[in-house]
Design goal:
The complex is a heterodimer of chains A (436) and B (328). With 436 residues, chain A is of the alpha/beta class. Chain A has 19 helices and 13 strands. Chain A starts with 8 loop residues before the first helix and ends in a 5-residue tail after the last helix. Classes of the chains: A alpha/beta (436), B mainly alpha (328). At the A-B interface, helix 1, helix 4 and helix 18 of A face helix 6, helix 11 and helix 12 of B.
């Protein structure tokens, strides 16, 4: 799950401690009025679980709900902000209960497919058919068996964020295009006294971006798609990804002790190292622009950031423009509230709301590309441009795979980065049913 | 208790028991009814809470543990003991259990002597005793989450801990405290010790307060050295408190989660994983709730067996003597 911004671990811990209490109370507080029969004219109350539990997204979602109510007086929306990681525990319980939320946070992919088995997810294909095309190919990540069971409101693309000032100090004129160039730039940065790449290995999921990008560069689109679908990574290109990653790690591009570095918490996190000029690059999603400013006293930090796509890997069968990506969206649950829910999701993807999400809530890239005009940060514009020009998107593997396999892969990769495990533990993590 | 004190106590008891004596004249059935009502009113809320939030979830967990269940949809895939076989033969679970046991053993071997030593010291009339007691107890007041975040920051490579070590000329001891797979578990243990030692000391101080000073005075008159008095009088009389401390410490070690989860997520490469981080990763994060329930049941069984055995063999004389009779 990549919320924007990625939740800090403190919140995870505190929230985890109260998770049980929260689970029991929230499902009972969900108004059941929404499931009562209603036509489009009847009054409906929609309960909306989203991960906008911190400002600025918190405020934006509240104003969006209020604005929708103003134009749709029959629809009242109860906004329930929930910390991202809690959705893992809360959704199974909610979808098993008789009164799940009407709208809830949805990251799509295999996770959505897992939730789909509850039978409580609404098929929005026909309701949304009139407007979903505005989103272009982005909406495909929220389909199960070709039907739209969720709809995105923003998109994320993973790439290298780099400090233009540190690159200049190290004498690097332009960002690298190939892995070989990246490695030689790493050497220049080290010589200039900087950590080349900050890695939040303590949070585990950032490790996965490296291996996954090697796989995206090395595997052809069809192999990638069929492997994800079959939950099977025995194709040789995945093994090659491990080999190439091992060689890359052999050049020691990361900061010392990266296995314990968290991704986004404090100045010592990987994002903090980038923010404070200790490291020159980080492979991260576009939520980086909302994370970095909070971790440094340098108010002009965003002007020092640049963006370049993951470099080319020699001999790769993947299209060199392909990107590792994902996004945030929402699903509706089955019931009489479906039409109102669809209208609300359409409203969220309207250009006006999308622009507000981008400019006020820093969600990253809008799901509706019509709103991309309001992106002002040059690095973010570069990310948006690369995303728009990508031949295809590869969704982060931990989301694309069913949850069990995706999490097992993340853990196997984190173990590999910590020096335990091998190519076979990575490859087998998704297919071995136990994976323990 | 002196004679005068017992007389006063007896008089007080008379005064208090007068209404009860009046009650003795009412019919026996009414008295019984009253007792039943009192018991119901007083016991019902805790019983309902205990059954609802402890017993029923335990039964559910045991039931879920027999299924392959993602948490979504009905419980339909009955797999019997397969989850148990998976847990008990899994190398990572064994590693986690081993870590819990290491923490428990280290607690008893290292924390206990340190706690006793500090408690004996703080029980003496030393200057600034109140401040010292406050200082050792303060970390216990912090939540585990706060402690973990604080120490996570302190232990960063090049962070305050490393700076202090270098400052005092021990730069050679600087390590990747949380990133080294061979060190991380012991780092976690040190942080846990820092947090919980105050609790042990307060418990032991309370135990020390219960030892009449006359005993040590008498021993001193008979020519015992302070060390002899400590060894032959104080420690044996402190034994019930020590036994309770060991019990709480071992159970606490088995349930270690928050500190580890926030500092390391059980990593790197499972080097600091405990049974509960294992349960969270494999049960909750991977949405294998049946498997997670199995881990819970296994941990419950381990805790229960330890608790019962400890009650039977270690705590029995404490509870069978003073405590039981006083309650009766």
């Amino acid at each position: 799950m990549r919320g924007s911004p990625r939740p800090v671990i403190v919140a995870v811990a505190v929230a985890t401690a109260v998770a049980i209490a929260a689970c029991s109370s929230s499902s009972s507080s969900t108004p059941s009025t929404s499931s009562s029969s209603s036509s489009s004219s009847a009054k409906v109350t929609l309960t909306w679980w989203n991960n906008g539990n911190t400002q600025p997204l918190l405020g934006v979602w509240q104003s969006v709900a209020a604005a929708f109510h103003a134009t749709h007086p029959n629809v009242t929306i109860t906004v329930v902000p929930i910390q991202s990681d809690l959705f893992t525990t809360k959704m199974p319980i909610a979808l098993k209960s008789n009164n799940p939320p009407d709208i809830f946070q949805q990251w799509g992919g295999g996770q959505e497919a897992t939730q789909y088995t509850s039978g409580k997810l609404a098929n929005l294909s026909s309701l949304a058919s009139s407007w979903i095309s505005e989103l272009g190919p982005a909406a495909a990540g929220w389909q199960v068996n070709g039907a739209q069971y969720g709809i995105p409101y923003d998109q994320h693309v993973v790439g290298f964020w780099y400090r233009t000032d540190l690159f200049a100090k190290a004498g690097i004129a332009s960002p690298p295009n190939t892995i070989a160039q990246l490695e030689s730039d790493d050497a220049k940065l080290k010589a200039a006294g900087f950590t080349p790449i900050a890695l939040g290995g303590g949070s585990r999921w950032p490790d996965a971006f490296f291996w996954e990008y090697f796989a995206v560069r090395l595997c052809s689109e069809s192999v990638l798609q069929s492997s994800i679908k079959a939950v099977n990574m025995t194709a040789p290109c995945f093994t090659q990804a491990t080999t190439d990653l091992t060689a890359f790690m052999g050049t020691n591009p990361f900061q010392g002790g990266f296995n314990a570095t968290q991704a986004q918490t404090g100045a010592g996190s990987s994002a903090g190292l980038l923010a404070n000029g200790k490291a020159a690059m980080e492979l991260q999603g576009d939520w980086e622009t909302s994370v970095v400013p909070a971790l440094t006293s340098n108010s002009g930090i965003l002007n020092d950031l640049g963006w370049f796509p993951f470099p080319q890997v020699p001999g790769g069968a993947g299209n060199p423009t392909a990107v590792l990506s994902g996004g945030d969206g929402f699903s509706c649950t089955t019931g009489a509230s479906e039409p109102a829910c669809d209208e609300f999701l359409q409203y969220i993807d309207s250009t006006a709301v999308q622009e507000e999400l981008v400019s006020k809530a820093n969600v990253g890239l809008p799901a509706n590309s019509a709103a991309e005009a309001v992106l002002t940060n040059p690095a973010l514009q570069a990310a948006a441009k690369a995303h728009a020009g990508a031949a295809y998107d590869a969704e982060y593997f931990d989301i694309a795979f069913p949850t069990t396999a995706g999490q097992a892969l993340d853990n196997a990769l984190a173990d590999f980065f910590a020096g335990k495990g091998s190519n076979s533990t990575i490859i087998n993590s998704v297919s071995s049913s136990s994976g323990h | 208790m002196t004679r005068t004190q017992s007389a006063t106590a007896a008089a007080g008891r008379d005064i208090v028991s007068r209404p009860a004596a009046a009650g003795a004249r009412t019919p026996r059935s009414r008295r019984r009814l009253r007792k039943a009502v009192e018991l119901t009113v007083l016991l019902a809320p805790p019983v309902v809470l205990f059954v609802g939030f402890v017993i029923v979830p335990m039964i559910f967990a045991a039931w879920y543990s027999l299924y392959n269940w993602s948490g979504f949809g009905p419980l339909s895939d009955f797999i019997g003991g397969q989850n148990y076989a998976g847990v008990l033969t899994g190398p990572v679970f064994r590693q986690a259990l081993e870590h819990n046991v290491i923490i428990a053993v280290l607690s008893v071997v290292i924390q206990l002597p340190v706690s006793i030593g500090l408690a004996l010291l703080l029980n003496r009339r030393v200057r600034g005793r109140t401040f010292l007691r406050l200082a050792v107890f303060a970390p216990f007041v912090l939540s585990e989450a706060t402690t973990a975040v604080m120490w996570y920051e302190l232990l960063q490579p090049g962070g305050p801990v490393d700076a202090v070590l270098k400052g005092v000329g021990l730069g050679g001891l600087v390590h990747y405290w949380l990133a080294s797979t061979s060190l991380v578990l012991y780092t976690v243990f040190v942080v846990a010790t820092w947090k919980y030692i105050g609790f042990g000391i307060v418990l032991l101080l309370a135990g020390l307060q219960g030892i009449p000073p006359e005993l040590r005075e008498a021993a001193a008159i008979d020519g015992a050295t302070p060390w002899q008095a400590t060894r032959a009088i104080t420690l044996p009389l402190l034994a019930p408190t020590i036994r309770i401390w060991i019990f709480l410490s071992v159970i606490g070690s088995l349930q270690l989660f928050d500190l580890v989860w926030i500092m390391t997520l059980g990593g790197p490469a499972n080097a600091s994983t405990t049974i509960l981080t294992y349960q969270y990763i494999n049960g909750v994060q991977r949405t294998q709730f049946g498997y997670g329930a199995t881990v819970s049941v296994v941990l419950f069984a381990i805790s229960l067996v330890f608790a019962l055995a400890y009650q039977r063999y270690a705590l029995r004389r404490d509870t069978a003597g003073a405590l039981t009779r006083a309650v009766m």
